[in-house]
Amino acid sequence: MGAPADEQRNILVLLRSRDAEEFDVETLLGWMAHENAEIRDWATFNLGTQTDEDSIDVRQALADRLVDPDGDTRSEALVALARRRDVRALAPLIDALNGDTVDRLMVEAAGYFSRPELVEPLQSLRGWWDDEDEYDARLLADALLACRTGAIPSTFFDLITANDG
């Protein structure tokens, strides 16, 4: 039997309203494995993107979310691992960039990764992905520059020291 609805609502309110740094890492790690997809998504976002926490346990929890049944949670985990330059996210990112629909988080993740393997999939987005939105065009251009040069553009918030291991 799952957690009561009131408890789930309370967790979501906390995740949405508090600064990520206010949460204990172990609590966020636990919520990342919660039965409720929205809780997993918000916990993954908070730990993965809103903090600079980086450890074997954090990376493993994020890698576990790469196969989450919820697409939003998978996307948040992918960006978080890309920020940490964790190669476990590289193949899923390439697959996502080659998909029929590509969201901004995938292009952002490519920029954080800053790897030459991502240039071709990013180039294939030109003309259909970035043609109607100035923000998308800039994001794609910045991600391409990052992958060509290996340097994360200043438009990306790089909070975590590169660890290519």
From TrEMBL:
Pfam family, one: HEAT_2
Lineage of source species: Bacteria, Pseudomonadati, Pseudomonadota, Alphaproteobacteria, Sphingomonadales
Name of the featured protein: HEAT repeat domain-containing protein
Alphabetized InterPro entries for the sequence: ARM-like, ARM-type_fold
Native species: Parasphingopyxis marina
